[in-house]
Amino acid sequence: MSTSLEFDLSSIDRLADRMNELGRLDKIELLDSIFAEIETQTRRRLRREKTAPDGTPWAAWSDEYAETRHGGHSLLMNEGDLDDSLAPFIYLDGSGGEFGSNLVYAAIQQFGGEEVDRPNHPAREYLGFSQENLDDIEHIVDLFLEDHIERVMH
Questions:
Q1: pTM (whole model) above 0.85
Q2: Hey, which of 36, 41, 65, 142 has its CA 20 to 30 A from 89?
Q3: Beta-carbon count within 10 A of 111 CB
Q4: What is the DSSP string of 80-127?
């Protein structure tokens, strides 16, 4: 005489599949969202705020340089070339990325320094993050992860 016991472990297998799927996060999609926000933040700083990420106002043009500007020109937005050149570069392996400009003068605007026609060029930091910027990015990550979990679990 014997007793038998049978278990249906298919629900455990389904749970294991879901757990594996949770680990298959589309990092490139997440990075696309993050860098879209970074681009929005940076363009806003260039076009409207005219401040460094920490809120420090940019140095005004020198009087001499201001005389060479005309209507529609503003700090870092003369013809819009710097703004137009901003772009993300997301690493194909999904480990991160970079955001910035490939223009030669982009670094002198960010860090300041010496230029041939303008010695002692002040830094006008336009790349970087305020705490509010970081909070916005964290919110994007949270929403992305919540959506990913919701898709996997249903």
A1: no
A2: 142
A3: 13
A4: SHHHHH-EEEE-TTSS-EEEE---TTHHHHHH-B--SSSTTBPP---S
